[in-house]
Design brief:
elongated, single chain, alpha+beta, 186 residues, two-stranded antiparallel sheet, 6-stranded mixed sheet
Length: 186
């Protein structure tokens, strides 16, 4: 979804669109959890103009599947995403860069607390899709599990321990005590 900032009047504008499954898959490409989009994500957004800045308030819900990080069973997740960003012209950030070069930078980092929820745009057209995809990616759990009490797989035989106990000896001896094991047997 692209929005021309000249379209944003004093009262703001509202936009609604769908992000395709392919676009969502692209957003999570390379994530080690193995997420795959299972439906399109409907996005509702409101844009308000504040001088040359644009305030974006958006809401979406994305549906994904991923293997459980413990037992590898497919997990279906619905990830609600609500966010606000202030879109700043790139020229304004370049002015900040000049201040940083002159030694006026924040002592504890490259940006201040008031700049955390800011993104830049160039020209008069803002592409909202990359911003939404980034927020969806940030909202995903890093380690999806089928349930909090998931027992995972047996490290010896691979049995899903949520289904049944396999009876394998899963005790892993501490290698630092291996020398004493020989003395115990003598």
């Amino acid at each position: 979804m692209r929005v021309n900032i000249d379209e944003i009047k004093e009262l703001g504008i509202e936009r609604a669109w769908d992000l395709s499954r392919e676009a969502l898959d692209e957003a999570v490409k390379g994530d080690p959890a193995g997420y795959r989009a299972s439906a399109v994500a409907h996005v509702d957004a409101r844009l308000e103009r504040l001088g040359r800045r644009v305030r974006l308030v958006a809401r979406t819900g994305a549906e994904f599947t991923a293997p459980c990080g413990r037992c590898l069973v497919a997990v279906n997740l619905t990830v609600p995403v609500d966010f606000q960003l202030t879109l700043v012209p790139a020229e304004a950030n370049e002015d900040r860069g000049d201040r940083h070069e002159k030694g006026e930078a924040h002592a504890d980092g490259s940006f201040g607390p008031d700049e955390v929820d800011e993104e830049t745009y160039r020209g008069k057209v803002i592409d909202l899709d990359p911003l939404v995809k980034e927020q969806v990616f940030l909202a995903l759990p890093r380690y999806p599990v089928c349930k909090d009490a998931c027992k995972g797989l047996c490290p010896v035989c691979g049995q899903n321990l949520n289904e049944k106990d396999c009876g394998c000896d899963r005790h892993v001896p501490d290698p630092r005590w291996a020398g004493l094991e020989k003395l115990k047997r003598s």
